[in-house]
Input
Amino acid sequence: MRGSAPDRDQFDVITMGRVSMDLFSQTIGADMTEVEGFDAMIGGSPSNIAIGTARLGARVGILTAVGEDEIGRFVRAGFAHEGVATDFIRTVPDTRTGLAILAVQPPSTFPLTFYRENPADIHLSVADVDALPLETTRVLQLSGAALSRGTCAHATLHAGQRAASLDTTVVLDLDLRPDQWADPPAFGVAVRALLPSVDVAIGTEEEFHSALAEHSPALDGSALGEADRADLDHLLDRLHAREGGIITVLKRGPRGVTVRTPGSTTDVPGYSVEIANTVGAGDAFASGVIHGHLQGWSWTEAVRFGNACGAIEVTRHGCSAALPTRDEVDAFINANAQKEHP
Output
């Protein structure tokens, strides 16, 4: 895995996968029937992580696709405004750019509707991946949702394999969206095929259980019980025994984050903040973890920085629009040095 500073022509990060316009309710706490207006912003986990790492100072590109529509123009302009390279955004005829509409009922209820009938980004191809300059890219960030359908599934597997053959760190955000899979249990089958190419896997307890277990309640949207969590520990032990070099970053909500590296397991506490909005917290967290790796920090230090990014995100409304800058994160860490959960 690469740790040196990039040359001028290198990308620090390339992300790959879905993109959308998110319409985020301006009427906080209201049912969708009472919403009076929306804020428009870029959405989709890999897209948010592209913006998040760019705001933290990385040189970032994204591999995705848009339709020949106004939302596609919105997406391209939004990435360019954030300093994310748009060289690898393809326009796919006869498709639409994705759309998502959210009501906001804080702190944790966000009725969300995806409009992803034949979205452009599921048509990414192996040829699109081969056009990426992975030889001079430090981190390739992949998404579990990109494995759900279309040629993008094969392209994602190819991207992981190609990056693994180079000096490029492969970071997988498990990004489980059960409603995006025609057969939700296939999520685990697809992720397990990708894992041999992955250096770092990031996900919640529910996402890891769904990825590693033959059957998981989380595929139906249910939280894990204590027996499921015990089962997850065994599944992670087996994963690390089989994929000895992999690093897993397990998000455990208010119980913090558990980082497993070869030979060590570390619990990293989160920060105590007043939550306004949980949407986007995971993408802010992943952006911070990737940023820490780019700085050459230990994984524990990178996760602590990611926790701060996620904590800032949940105090704000919006998703990609709320992602913090490096100066904001540094100021937050300095101001909250004694406020991590025990």
